[in-house]
Amino acid sequence: MDSIQATLDTAQQKAPFGGTVTEALPSVGDLVTPGAEAFRIDDLQHLSVDIQITEIDITKVAVGQDATLVFDAIPDKTYQGKVTTVAKAGDVVQGVN
C-alpha cells in the first residue's frame, strides 16, 4: 500500500500559480507523454478582455478608465474592470478601420 501511495505522490502536477482548471484535454485511457499539454489553468481573479470599439467611440476611452462588462451569454452578471491599454492603430473589420 505504501508503494502505491508513493507512486501516486510522484504523479502530481503543481502549477506555478493558484488558479482553476478550466480545461482537461486528455480523456480516460489517453496516452499522456512528457511535454504534452494536459490541462489549462486560469487565474480567474485577473482576467483580460480584448474588445473592439468603433472609431466613433474610441475617443471616449482612456487608460485607467473604469469599465463595466456585460455578456449576453452570462445573464444577470456584470464585471467591473479598468482599461489597461488602448491600441494606437485600429484593425480593419468588415472593410472599415
Task: Give a verbal description of the structure.
With 97 residues, the protein is mainly β. It has one helix and four strands. A two-stranded antiparallel ribbon has the order 1-2. It is elongated. The mean pLDDT is 85.
Keywords:
single chain; 97 residues; mainly beta; two-stranded antiparallel sheet; two-stranded antiparallel ribbon; 1 helix
User: What is the helix fraction of residues, given as a range?
Assistant: under 10%
Uncertain ranges? none
* Structure class: mainly beta
Q: Give the N-to-C terminal Cα separation.
A: 66 Å
Task: Itemize the secondary structure elements and their pairings.
Elements lengths: L1 H9 L9 E5 L14 E4 L23 E5 L7 E5 L15
Antiparallel strand pairs: 1-2, 3-4
What's a concise summary of this model?
With 97 residues, the chain is mainly β. Helix content is 9%, strand content 20%. The protein has one helix at residues 2-10; strands at residues 20-24, 39-42, 66-70, 78-82.
